[in-house]
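Hi R.,

As promised on Friday, here is the backbone we talked about, encoded as structure tokens. Could you run it through your design pipeline when you get a chance and send me back a sequence?
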């Protein structure tokens, strides 16, 4: 009987590396957006690409741990946004097998599909979950948190669309396509 693991060693290593990259990007490469407590950063592209390569569990934990560590270094954890980020990572990776990044088959069609999924995931996480939790947990004013959510979701979608797509194409090109090696 074969022993199937829920999470492979490769996924655990990916979570560690992805979390470290996310932390550095969120903590040291964030640019204020002009909306209070809402930054432009490159971390969503890392979360989305790692989720697209290693699956939803990796996406969830990279975002959850990375965002939590970043918030801790600023003084307090804003749980509504940690949950939203983790949900984004989970949703971005749900259809990971269909992107075919690891198999070297990430093409324009897969890229369009990947971006539709990540935009939907960003809308759910940042326009739905984060503001709702901000209101429920922190009693924040609705107009403030929905503006923050719209800006965060829009910026994150744009970063993943541009940087995430480039990273996915680049990584996929390094992978050997199944059936591409021929015996001489």
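Update: got your reply. Pasting your designed sequence below so it's all in one thread:
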């Amino acid at each position: 009987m074969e022993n199937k693991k829920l999470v492979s060693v490769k996924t655990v290593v990916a979570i560690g590396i992805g979390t470290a990259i996310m932390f550095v990007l969120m903590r040291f490469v964030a640019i204020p957006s002009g909306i209070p407590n809402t930054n432009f950063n490159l971390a969503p592209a890392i979360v989305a690409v790692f989720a697209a390569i290693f699956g939803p569990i990796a996406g969830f934990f990279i975002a959850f741990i990375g965002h939590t560590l970043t918030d801790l270094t600023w003084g307090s954890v804003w749980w509504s946004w940690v949950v939203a980020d983790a949900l984004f990572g989970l949703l971005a990776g749900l259809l990971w097998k269909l992107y075919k990044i690891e198999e070297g088959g990430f093409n324009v069609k897969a890229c369009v599909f990947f971006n539709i999924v990540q935009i939907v995931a960003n809308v759910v996480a940042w326009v739905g979950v984060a503001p709702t939790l901000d209101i429920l947990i922190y009693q924040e004013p609705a107009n403030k948190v929905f503006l923050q959510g719209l800006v965060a979701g829009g910026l994150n979608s744009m970063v993943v669309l541009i940087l995430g797509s480039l990273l996915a194409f680049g990584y996929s090109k390094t992978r050997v396509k199944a059936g591409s090696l021929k015996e001489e």
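One thing I noticed while checking it: The chain has a mean pLDDT of 94.

Thanks again,
M.
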